Amino acid sequence: MAKKKTIGVLTGGGDCPGLNAVIRAVVKSSFNLGWKVIGIQKGFEGLMDPSSAKELRSHDIAGILTMGGTILGTTNRGNPFEYSVKKGGKPVIVDKSDDAVKGFKKLGLDALVCIGGDGTLKIAKRLKDKGVPIVGVPKTIDNDLSATVITFGFDTAVSTATDAIDKLHSTAESHQRVMVVELMGRYAGWITLNSGIAGGADVILIPEIPFSVEKVCEKVEDRYRTKKNFCIVVVAEGAKPAGGGLFTKDAKSEGRQEVLLGGIGDWLAKEITKKTGRESRSLVLGHLQRGGHPTTFDRLTATRFGAAAVRAIKERKYGVMVALRPPDVVFVPLEEAVGKMKSVPVDSDEITAAKELGISFGD
């Protein structure tokens, strides 16, 4: 019998289908060891001010396996190492990481499970360096963490995007329009590539391949020339034209530090209309990709990750992230987990197959 412990669990960054499945697995696996689990609200903000933290009991996790979102709440603005506070009416960045460590100790925790993407896990790594026993669980719909073959949430996001593309086919054909769909993914094109192929898109534009608007328009015109009088274009929010830059929103007006991507879909639809004369419409799928019930694959992966996180604590393996390297879930150092972003290889079989089907990448 393992020594009884009290472990904390938090979710950081953007929400994602499967978060609740991880929380459920952490709690159930801990209960079977006789451990206590403390749920920390709103990510690292809840660790800096742990007054809202509460012990998670059986009734708290009942029925959450299939639920989207997170019962613990989350935020992508609570970095304790770069925390924004107001001084003299102006925002100032301060280091409140010591408050996070104090919160960990105040809650009487033996270890902390941090569920999040690249940003959350980088914070987890820095807290580990300050002596906090941490195990990370990879979460991102973007699938851009290199240490794991796949992250939970990605499969659900791709399914949601594919369903949207499927529905656009009928309206595009009915009106003989070009439909441009802007998808999430930040600087990686995994969601756009997978949903674009699965949804039968004609043009797929991803960050890894700078595109030419002229090449995109050539594909559009080719569709109409062959009497296929509509066209589906899917574009990643982080894609950019050759020689051009990223399309961004005004993040400072929302009090945010990170870059907010967006706007390329609307711009591209207007460019296509300008250069071809074809009627074009744009759609930003946005946060719909983060919502909904997790797919079977994401529920299973999230459950395996949550159980593995508790197993790592039981084996006193701290400063690691659980990762899927089929057929196993393994432990990798946090340094490795956040060291490199996983981009789509431009010579991958998926891209090769897509081009063989006649899909244009604008290159």
Strands of the largest sheet, in order across it?
Answer: 3-2-1-6-7-14-15
Strand elements, count: 15
The CATH architecture term of the largest domain is 3-Layer(aba) Sandwich
Radius of gyration: 22 Å
Which fold name is given in CATH as the topology of the largest domain?
Answer: Rossmann fold
- Number of helical stretches of at least 4 residues: 12
Q: How are helices and strands ordered from N to C?
A: EHEHEHEEHEHEHEHEHEEEHEHEEHH
Shape: elongated
- The mean pLDDT is 92
Helical residue percent? 25-40%
- Strand % is 15-25%
Q: Helix- and strand-based class?
A: alpha/beta
Q: Low-confidence spans: pLDDT under 50, at least 5 residues?
A: none
Overall description:
With 363 residues, the protein is α/β, with parallel strands linked by helices. It folds into two domains: 6-152 and 294-337, Rossmann fold (3-Layer(aba) Sandwich), CATH 3.40.50.450; 158-291, 3-Layer(aba) Sandwich (Rossmann fold), CATH 3.40.50.460. Helix content is 36%, strand content 19%. It has twelve helices and 15 strands. The chain has helices at residues 19-31, 44-48, 58-61, 97-106, 118-129, 154-175, 190-198, 213-225, 264-276, 296-314, 334-337, 349-356, and strands spanning 6-11, 36-39, 54-55, 83-87, 90-94, 111-116, 134-138, 178-183, 203-205, 231-236, 248-249, 260-261, 280-284, 320-325, 328-333. The strands form four sheets. It has a seven-stranded mixed sheet, with helices on both faces. Strands 9-10-8-13 form a four-stranded parallel sheet, sandwiched between helices. Helix 5 links the parallel strand 6 and strand 7 (134-138). Helix 1 packs parallel to helix 10 (296-314). The radius of gyration is 22 Å and the shape is elongated. The relative contact order is 0.17. The model has no long low-confidence stretch (mean pLDDT 92).
